[in-house]
Specification:
This protein is α/β, with parallel strands linked by helices and 827 residues long. Among the domains are: 203 residues, Glutathione S-transferase Yfyf (Class Pi), Chain A, domain 2, CATH 1.20.1050.130; 191 residues, 3-Layer(aba) Sandwich (Rossmann fold); 105 residues, Methionyl-trna Synthetase, domain 2 (Beta Complex). It is built from 31 helices and 21 strands. The strands form six sheets. A five-stranded parallel beta sheet has the order 7-6-5-17-18, with helices on both faces. A four-stranded mixed beta sheet has the order 2-1-3-4. It has a four-stranded antiparallel beta sheet with strand order 9-8-13-14. Strand 1, helix 1 and strand 2 form a beta-alpha-beta unit. Helix 13 crosses helix 14 and helix 15 crosses helix 19. The radius of gyration is 29 Å and the shape is globular. The chain starts with a strand and ends in a 9-residue tail after the last helix.
């Protein structure tokens, strides 16, 4: 194998380091010796590894991974997550700074803070263990262009752990040797940093047409052609869904949960993308994969938030729950959330299961009894649970903090720690009194928890923030966690002496996943006590992580029962609104009922929310960006391609797919399409939903380029050979449109259905495999083709900005609720 490097280019250092450290011995050559496929890549000044049979790797990270695995190393899930973080966060931050040297270090500083926290939580000199792994070299190599005399620049020296780690990696003999091979003399290696070239992007980020075409091998083209033309009959059939859905032996059984939304208000867009919509997109994808999938969710109806809202609205807690469960169900139905069952926590089965878990924890010695100092309102004659208290945050000074968490700094706090506390009901100052409570003995369960976390995070797909948040909880050791509250609305504590108390919502609410499933099927334990046959996916916003990764697992571990634990914890960051934050309590942002009143189809909202899904960092809903993405990505890109492909069939060929005579150009395009299909599957398998959607847009953009290049509207009027080209291009294009209709189904189900109806797509194509096949063969008749999307005008955006400034319109809520109260638990 041959490794081509540009002399003096920093990106070659981590590639050489990986080769030396893990025992590979490639022939190192300059770009001048490149030939064939590699030539078109080398001009971008990135490393190129040419393998036998002229297979080529041109991403530094991909080359490092090849050397790592060739050296007998096994890539861990943690390594994969760090490499994803490198591509999505670290490299863009470094490139942005180097492209504009005078720019503030803020973006890079925020990124390095995550790395600093991870290193600070660890107990070894490297990211994952006591020896360097792939992630150490990859991240270190991305930071190299910034280093001055081997250290971070002065603006970043505050990151002491990062500096220590850089030194540890830099002094590895393999890295020292690589630096000497790359730079002459090199006393302190890099002193004049240069911006990493665009080639540092991974293959999944390479633009279509960049170098995919030249990288297609003969073997790849042969298989692509064969599969496209002859594999249609070999594709699996969609499996019918029969309720109740239960696990099946020998199949991929996928259990999907979304964080249970509170019933104290209408959900806003941040709530929707953070839990139910993300879970829905993955559930729909899972079904397309023919995985045996159950998607359950429901409203979280117990706790302080419900009592507070009931008091504010002059209703009973039960009436509040009925009202808002009905509203939530209607909003999710409008968004086309495909729950298999949408339940609620205020059911007899929930009480039974929660109390069963409690009794097992009690009998096995995992509950402690402690007296707690609490705020007591003498005017209301009651102990004040967390959310009945407001005051000034003791950590950041925010004057409107709650008794459980500060909205500004995000820190968890105790109500008694608040400065100038007030009862949220009567606005009087409470006093501190003592009250007996029960605590879950987390320290006693910590060793079991860490063993489980090591296995789950190592074998499953946890998002980077989920891992970091969990590590931060474990860093200083766990403390007992109170699981009871002085409330009247909640699951009763069945222990004598605690009759006037209920379970704390964060002990009680996750048990709702079990009880909601139990309300769906009496065989619920086949899902929840079946860890060897079931893969559990949890979707939530990052503030819910510790309760799902620490408190709830400890509750289940303490019972001694063989429960199904989360394998894949998928957490988002926060979605902000324009210049501020969404807030249910303060009525800031766009809420579910506002969305319905906008007149914009649910699929457009689904598309945009996934497109800006806060996967690696906080993102922002922007009306201007909403208009831009609709008009450019949906209307001019995706919609334009699918409409053109269908219209060519109806206009030039009487509504029937024409003949195919594939040329090298066509097969190359089919191979590119197959590569994007594989990238889509890789991202979606790991619940990287935004990247999956990006693959769809790249494919439709490639389709438009393919049509534009071959101009079938001109060739149809030419010679017989020109007409044949027009037929082939049209047939290929309409089959790509068919594939797009399937890939789009998890994101925009109504639009997907419309495309399939227009193209008369056979239902058998709705199973996703690694193969791109010709589902619309020559002679296939399609239906009427009409545009899929419509332009949004700037005057509409201005109108919506004014209309939806975040002011809640309670009349809308009340009128909707009066239209029909319901306690129905299934949608």
């Amino acid at each position: 194998m041959r490794l081509h490097l540009v002399p003096g280019e920093p990106t070659g250092i981590k590639v050489l380091s990986a080769a030396v450290l893990w025992g590979s011995r490639p022939e190192v050559l300059p770009p001048a010796h490149c030939d064939g496929v590699a030539k078109s890549i080398c001009h971008q000044q990135q490393p190129v590894l040419v393998l036998p049979e002229n297979k080529v790797l041109f991403s530094p990270n991909a080359i490092c991974r090849f050397f790592y695995e060739a050296g007998g190393q096994v890539l861990s899930k943690q390594d994969e997550q760090w490499m994803e973080w490198d591509v999505t966060k670290l490299q863009p931050a470094v490139c942005s700074l180097l492209a504009q040297p005078d720019k503030s270090y803020k973006q890079l500083g925020e990124t390095l803070r995550e790395l600093e926290q991870a290193l600070n939580c660890g107990k070894s000199p490297y990211l994952i263990g006591t020896s360097p792994t792939l992630s150490d070299l990859v991240l270190w190599g991305s930071l190299l262009p910034l280093l001055v005399d081997g250290n971070l620049p002065g603006e970043l020296v505050c990151f002491e752990e990062v500096g220590r780690w850089i030194t540890a990696v830099s002094t590895l003999s393999a890295c020292q040797r690589a630096m000497k091979m790359t730079f002459e003399d090199c006393p302190a290696f890099i002193s004049k940093p240069t911006c990493p070239p665009s080639g540092q992007r991974g293959v999944e980020q390479t633009q279509v047409g960049d170098c995919l075409e030249s990288a297609v091998t003969k073997e790849e083209m042969t298989r692509t052609r064969d599969v496209f033309l002859h594999f249609r009959e070999k594709q699996p059939q969609p499996k019918p869904i029969e309720h109740p859905i239960l696990p099946r032996r020998g199949e991929e059984n996928v259990l999907v949960t979304s964080a249970l939304p509170y019933v104290n208000n209408v959900p806003h867009l941040g709530n929707i993308i953070g839990c139910v919509l993300s879970a829905d997109v993955f559930s729909r994808y899972s079904r397309l994969r023919n995985w045996n999938t159950l998607f359950v969710c429901g409203t979280d109806e117990y706790g302080t938030a419900t009592e507070t809202k009931a008091l504010a609205d002059g209703l009973s807690p039960r009436e509040i729950c009925d009202k808002y469960h009905f509203l939530h169900a209607g909003i999710y139905r409008w968004f086309n959330i495909s729950f298999d069952f949408f339940g609620r926590t205020t059911t007899p089965l929930h009480t039974k299961i929660a109390q069963d878990i409690f009794w097992k924890l009690e009998k096995r010695g995992f509950l402690l009894r402690q007296t707690v100092e609490q705020l007591h309102c003498e005017h209301c004659v009651r102990f004040l649970a967390d959310r009945f208290v407001e005051g000034t945050c003791p950590l950041c000074g925010y004057i409107d903090a709650r008794g459980d968490q500060c909205d500004k700094c995000g820190k968890l706090i105790n109500a008694t720690e608040l400065k100038d506390p007030l009862c949220s009901i009567c606005r009087r100052t409470p006093v501190i009194l003592s009250s007996p409570h029960l605590f879950l003995d987390l320290p006693k369960l910590e060793e079991n928890l860490e063993s489980w976390l090591l296995e789950s995070q190592g074998s499953g797909d946890w998002t980077f923030n989920a891992i970091q948040i969990t590590r931060s909880w474990l860093k200083s050791g766990l403390r007992p966690r109170c699981v009871t509250r002085d409330l009247s609305w909640g699951t009763p504590v069945p222990l004598p002496g605690y009759e006037n108390k209920v379970f704390y919502v964060w002990f009680d609410a996750p048990i709702g996943y079990l009880s909601i499933t139990a309300n769906y099927t009496e065989h619920w334990e086949e899902w929840w006590k079946n860890p060897r046959q079931v893969q559990l996916y949890n979707f939530m916003a990052k503030d819910n992580v510790p309760f799902h990764s620490v408190v709830f697992p400890c509750s289940l571990l303490g019972t001694g029962d063989d429960y199904t634990f989360v394998n894949h914890l998928i957490a988002t960051e926060y979605l902000n609104y324009e210049e501020g934050k969404f807030s249910k309590s303060r009525g800031v942002g766009i809420f579910g009922d506002n969305v319905q009143a906008s007149g914009i189809a649910a699929d457009i909202w689904r598309f945009y929310l996934v497109a800006v899904r806060p996967e690696g960092q906080d993102s922002t809903f922007s009306w201007d960006d909403f208009m831009l993405r609709n008009n450019s990505e949906l209307l001019n890109n995706l919609g334009n391609f699918i409409n053109r492909a269908g219209m060519f069939v109806t206009r030039f060929f009487g509504g029937h797919v024409p003949s195919l005579e594939l040329t090298t150009e066509d097969v190359t395009f089919l191979a590119q399409t197959t590569r994007l299909l594989h990238q889509y599957l890789q991202h979606m398998d790991k619940a990287r939903l935004r990247e999956g959607l990006r693959c769809i847009l790249l494919l439709s953009r490639a389709g438009n380029q393919y049509i534009q290049q071959h101009e079938p509207w001109k060739r149809i009027k030419g010679s017989p050979s020109d007409r044949m080209r027009a037929e082939t291009v049209t047939a290929v294009a309409v089959n790509v449109a068919c594939l797009l209709s399937v890939l789009l189904a998890p994101f925009m189900p109504e639009t997907s259905g419309t495309i399939q109806k227009q193209l008369q797509v056979p239902s058998t194509c709705n199973v996703l495999t690694d193969d791109f096949v010709c589902w619309l063969p020559p002679g296939h008749a399609i239906g009427q083709v009409v545009p899929l999307f419509h332009k949004i005008e700037s005057w509409q955006i201005e109108e919506w900005k004014e209309r939806f400034r975040g002011k809640r319109v309670d009349k809308v809520i009340n009128s909707t609720a009066k239209a029909g109260q319901s306690t129905k638990t299934e949608d």
